[in-house]
Amino acid sequence: VQLQASGGGLVEAGASLRLSCVGSARTFTPYAMAWFRQAPGKEREFVAAIGLDGGTISYGHFVNGRFKISREYAQNTVYLQMDNLQPEDTAVYYCAASRRLIPRTQNDVDYWGKGTQVTVSS
After folding, report:
1. Which residue has the higher pLDDT, 40 or 1?
2. Which of the residues 3, 36, 42, 52 has an alpha carbon 20 to 30 A from that of 115?
3. Which residues lie closer than 8 Å to 109 by C-beta, 6 or more apart?
């Protein structure tokens, strides 16, 4: 199972980034998809998840309307649009696939992709 995340980078506070995670049809179509993040010295935390129907969505408590998750079946891709980024959003962001309806914890995840670094300067 391969999930390839991209789109991270170094931005200033208030900027936007869009992360992408591409899988194969086998690793994408049957799974709910999610994003988690891990900052240095902290545990990996839930960011957002989207179900198979594309309409069942959940966000981490800190998102506060700044992020939007979406999925495109034709491209086998899940996106995370992140607006108004803040220094506390600095972390490695990981995409994940899950057989759960909506994965919200690391235990819910069946497959992890490699992370992409997001750094937000103040």
Report:
1. 40
2. 52
3. 34, 36, 96, 97, 98, 103
